[in-house]
Write a structure and sequence with these properties.
299 residues; mainly alpha; globular
Length: 299
């Protein structure tokens, strides 16, 4: 399984065929014809792609390179759901604790902000460490989730207190709606994840992140709101773009999970799937929080 999350982009699609690690080879004698999958272009099934988990002794292979029957130490949808529930649950739990235990009243705002920003930086470091590891580490992933939750709890409490009361619940509902909508669209095959789709999303995401980084630098050294990408009409536009990008990454995450199960990925890979889904949902939540804050702040 190759992650579609931006942090795992080095494990993503290769230039020549589908996901990196789905090695393009000529079909074996007596094997299936090329392009047997109706969702072909860029799909790891296409162009005679082989199973990247063929070395997994628990995933017996048929002539298509897919597991004949899931058994033993292979990833299942239940594994992904349970690991994702644990990771997201950790984020939610620590966010609630941070909201309750780190007050954002004027007397404590600076201290709470400092703790929140520090937790966010630790979460970033842990996510980067995990992204460069060959195998998923549950301790790193849950540690990331815990610190990310502290960061989200402080930021959410501050936004709710000083900018727009009730915006946090709206952002949570918006995130859930995007998740459900993309899942339905993916299952109905209204969204087809191809190599071209992946390339477009990654290019758009890199451009988006670079623009936000430049805006942050201008804000830090020039004061105000930098280039204005996070306020007014431009802020609304970039908030919508951020949510759309998050929805696209959800589709890539669902593709990652589907391929991992189909190809008989080791069970431990379900932690990477949970990690990617959690990071994407955090991205969408933060974009909703910013967008709704702008909209309600202008009222």
């Amino acid at each position: 399984m190759r992650s579609s999350n931006p942090v795992f982009s080095r494990r993503g699609f290769s230039r020549d065929n589908g996901y990196a690690g789905f090695n393009a080879q000529q079909p074996q004698a007596g094997g299936p014809a090329v392009g047997t999958n109706p969702y072909a272009t860029g799909n790891p099934y296409a162009e005679g792609a082989t199973n990247p988990y063929a070395t997994n002794p628990y995933a017996p292979q048929d002539t298509l390179g897919a597991p004949q029957q899931a058994r033993g130490n292979v990833m299942t949808i239940d594994d992904v759901v349970s690991r994702t529930a644990m990771t997201l649950g950790t984020v939610v739990l620590t966010a609630v604790l941070a909201w309750l235990l780190l007050p954002v009243d004027p007397a404590n705002l600076g201290k709470s902000y400092g703790i929140g920003i520090g937790a966010g930086l630790v979460a970033l470091v842990l996510s980067l460490v995990q992204s460069f590891k060959r195998k998923p580490s549950p301790a790193l992933i849950l540690g990331y989730a815990a610190f990310e939750g502290v960061f989200l709890g402080v930021i959410s409490a501050a936004v709710s207190t000083y900018i727009a009361d009730g915006v946090v619940a709206q952002a949570v509902l918006g995130t859930m709606a995007v998740f459900a909508g993309v899942l339905i669209a993916y299952k109905m095959r209204w969204i087809r994840v191809t190599r071209r789709f992946y390339g477009f999303v990654m290019a758009a995401a890199i451009g988006f992140v670079l623009l936000m980084a430049v805006n942050l630098l201008f804000a830090v050294f020039g004061g105000g709101d930098g280039l204005g990408f996070r306020s007014g009409g431009l802020g609304i536009l970039f908030g919508v773009i951020g949510i759309i990008l998050g929805a696209c990454f959800l589709a890539l995450d669902f593709k990652q999970v589907e391929d991992g199960i189909t190809y008989g990925a080791p069970r431990e890979e379900s932690w990477l799937a949970a990690f990617g889904l959690t990071m994407t949902l955090v991205w969408i939540y933060m974009e909703f929080l910013r967008l709704l804050s702008i909209l309600q702040g202008d009222d």
